[in-house]
Amino acid sequence: MRLRLGVVAALLLTFASEPQVSLGAAAAGTVRAAYCYGYMSPSHVDSLAAHGFTRAIVHTISDSIDARSVTEFRGFALRSAATGLEFVPEWLFQSDSRLALRPAARRYTWGRGTIEAAVPCPLDSVYWQRAVFDAADSVLAAVPGVARVAVDLELYRDSRHHYDAGPCRCAACLSEYLVATPALAGRDPSRLGGLAGWEESRVAAFLRPMLRQFARRHPGVRLEVFDLDLDSFVHRALGRALARTAVPTTDYTERTYSTGSGSLQAARDRLRSIGLAATPLVGGLWLKRYSPAALVVAMHAIEHAADGVFLFTTYSLVVDASKLTGGYALQGDARDYWNALGSDSP
User: How far apart are CA 106 and CA 102, in angstroms?
Assistant: First the structure.
């Protein structure tokens, strides 16, 4: 079933600010990725492959990389290999079980003493080691041959989505800042503007040897990041450490969820500012925001302006519509979305 020409023409007028390109399968070398969940059936990959997708980003909802997530990843890896899709295992930085092993005082504290009890202190290097590098080691040992892994630094509990409220002011961070900056003796470090820059440098400094070790253990494997283009001191530090160590990465940006391709230049500018001008940029689209026909136009606009597009989340395309709520609800029938994604012309 093909999209009617009149419908697409009207939509192109609606999206006049988007680059107008032909509809159809992704251009050679362009990433068309689907974000899906590990608990879904690996057979979902078959539908993705049949509708022009080239990559499956599989997110585990497990608190950490455990037996369940490993089993899920293996299933998707096997099915992806059979269909020709590239499989990308992905997990969250935030983890209750990992956090429980760290000192209770090392929690993200911002402003005048707001403590995010579920969020690790961003200067806790041991937490970073376990959350990113040990997790990657576990995945790559369990699923040999994976060429890229992805981590999402988004925080899902307490009041912040990212480390975007400024530098951490927990007692450990302030104490270390004072020790490292003798000229501050007798002053309140939480009131000084230099704290953010110092913390950014500290995070980048301890990430560099971890990244070099990752490269030695897993030569050529890409360590990819969701929202690497965010302007928080943590994201800047990670980006600069990736640039300094030359560990290959990709930025999956979610800023396109609400603005489409119009925000891609800002993402590229941010990557360039931290030394990652050549880093591939894949723009995301949130399915619930688009009708089937509008989705196709928006996808191709992003593919035209970036290195690819990913859809969040294709879970919505395989679940009974009556069970979809909130962020998963669609504006149309799932069959119309699949038809639109699989169309090779208007």
Answer: 7
Q: How far is CA 315 from CA 65, 95, 109, in A?
A: 21, 23, 35
pLDDT tens-place string over residues 124-145: 999 999 999 999 999 999 999 9
Coil, strand or helix at 141: helix
Q: Which residues pair with 308 in a beta bridge?
A: 31, 282
Residue 93 is classified by DSSP as S
HSE of 52 in the Cβ direction (CA atoms, 13 Å)? 25
> If you compute the radius of gyration of the chain from its CA atoms, what whole number of angstroms results?
21
Contact 113, 172 (CB under 8 A): no
Residue 303: pLDDT over 70: yes
Give tens-digit pLDDT for 182-241: 766 666 655 566 899 999 999 999 999 999 999 999 999 999 999 999 999 999 999 999
Within 10 angstroms of residue 58's Cβ, the number of other Cβ atoms is: 27
Q: Give the contacts of 35 (CB within 8 A, at least 6 positions apart).
A: 57, 59, 90, 284, 310, 311, 312, 313, 314
Q: How many residues does the chain have?
A: 346
State residue 105's pLDDT score. Answer: 93
Whether the link from the prior residue into 114 is cis, omega within 30° of 0, is no
